[in-house]
Amino acid sequence: MGTLKIIGSNAIRKETHWEKVSDESSHKNDLHNWKFQYIAAFSASLATLCTGTVLGWPSQITAKLLDDDLDFPIDSGQLGWIYSCSSLGAALLSLVVGPICDSLGRKLTMILMVLPLEIGWLLIIFAGDSWGGSSLEWWGGSFCVTVPLYIGEIAQAEIRGVLGGLTQFTISCGILVANILGEFLSVGNFSVACAIVPMLFVLIFVSMPESPLYLQTKGRSDDAKKSLRKLLGKKSVEDEFNEIEKYIRGETKVVPAMEILRKKSTKKALAIGIGLALAKVLSGIDAVTSYLSHIFDSTDTSLGSKNAAILFAMFQVFSVVPQTLIVDRWGRKILLTSAQFAMAFCLLATSLCLHLKLVHGMDPALDYVPVVALCLYTVAFSVGIGPLGWILTAEIFEEKIRGPAMSACTFLIWFLAFGNVKMFEVIEDVSELSVPFIVYGTVSFLAAFFVLFLVPETKNKSFAEIDKELSR
Question: The Major facilitator superfamily (MFS) profile domain covers which part of the protein (predicted)?
């Protein structure tokens, strides 16, 4: 390099040209090496597409169930209990999914979870069992633990943010698909369509490799290398394998459980994981989604409740796409902080408009302000805490406790989701519709500062580097 600079300006130009060629070649090699990681991540994310159809199923079939569209008797009280049991069941199941992943593996656990999910759909389709619907969310919710865990371990640091965003993207896609299909199909045919998705997932995902990190923790070095070769698209993976082995050696020392929990990095990771779970649920996304029709009806707009649900789901889907393109460029922290402030603004604006309409009346031209604000709110959620909550939770915990810790955080999300939806109704009954939005907006505002001051930047960092930063 120095010799070329001494020779003259032509040599310098030549050096610059070849550096550019080298950079382009390196970029092409990166894309080639990442190709199968994208394929594996997309395949795994079909599982959370199943979760999305499960979450979108109730909003479209409630009226049809009450009208006996599936030939079994059900009233609104029973339907309420079915939905409540769904969230509580998902919360309880999420506690055991992490340890099962550590025992059976990420891949096998995901495949096995499809069986009870399919049984739930079959109970609805053939047995006319309305309570079969309550079990759907249990098993669909389990993928919120397994998919981020799997993707986080198969993706290289440079693309972990992009691929991690697929979890929220496919959940949103599933909800959108369910809303659209539910508009045109009977409950039976709608359920058949939803039941096909898990089978497609198994057929595609069964050929994907297991997490090399998991394989090496079990002492299966040959299998870990084979998995790495497939994921990286190259024959020589010694450098990557040695990096994993070095990380695992530090993780596999026999350390008492209480000593792990006393570690500074573990305490910080748990605090961040719990904080992100609280920020996600207490921002009100579950309550807003559940009561969307009621909220939009209160604005006196011409937008029908079913159209509102589809519009809301479309905003969720399309806003995740740009998020995946910028998360590994901008970083998690700035994106999440900005999104939290945006959510707070939209929620407080919605609250103000609903209050003014109730107390003072409001210009009909302003009836669409809450609609626009809530659509922007779901964009901010889908860019920020929606996908980044899953990504960060999968990144901050060390391998030894990653499965159980993610289970605990997911349990908290599902449990709080159940309570949050119930509390929305209670708060509105004792006050007015605008009050819950004040609560959600305030929480989102405070969560922005939580992220700003306590959450580390994990962009392009290995698990070892993240753990080292949390230990400071």
Answer: 36-459
Domains of the chain: residue spans and CATH: 35-208 (1.20.1250.20), 254-472 (1.20.1250.20)
**Cα Rg of the chain, angstroms:** 24
DSSP 10-52: HHHHHHHHHHHHHHHHHHHHHHHHHHHHHHHHHHHHHHHHHHH
Q: What is the mean pLDDT of each run of 10 residues along the chain (472 residues)?
A: 35 36 45 80 94 76 54 54 66 84 92 89 72 66 88 88 87 86 79 90 95 90 91 84 80 59 85 93 84 74 69 83 81 93 95 81 72 90 89 85 84 83 77 87 96 90 86 83
Extended strands (E) in 78-181: none
Q: Are 124 and 133 in contact (CB under 8 A)?
A: yes
User: Which uninterrupted H or E stretch holds 188?
Assistant: helix 187-205
From the number of C-beta atoms within 10 Å of its C-beta (0-12, 13-18, 19+), residue 115 rates as: exposed
158/168 Cα distance (integer angstroms): 19
237 phi, psi to nearest 5 deg: -125, 25
What is the b/e burial string over 392-410, where b = at least 16 CB atoms within 10 angstroms of the residue's CB? bbbbbbbbbbbbbbbbbbb
What helix, strand, coil percent values describe the chain, rounded to 5? 85, 0, 15
Measure CA 155 to chain center. 16
d(CA 240, CA 272): 28
CA distances from 394 to 159, 409, 422 (A): 14, 10, 29
Instruction: Give the chain's end-to-end CA distance (angstroms, integer).
Output: 39
**Secondary structure letter of residue 159 according to DSSP:** G
Quick one: angle between helices 187-205 and 166-184, nearest 10? 150
Backbone angles phi, psi at 393, to 5 degrees: -65, -35
Give the CA diameter of the chain.
89
The single-letter code of the amino acid at 118 is E
In one-letter notation, the amino acid at residue 369 is V
d(C-alpha 438, C-alpha 64), whole Å: 33
Q: How far apart are CA 307 and CA 385, in angstroms?
A: 25
At position 166, the amino acid (one-letter code) is: L
Residues 454, 457, 462, 468, Cα dihedral to 10°: -40
* Pairwise CA distance, residues 265 & 198, whole Å: 37
And the tokens for 136?
């759907």
Query: What is the Cα–Cα distance from 341 to 177, expressed in whole angstroms?
Result: 29
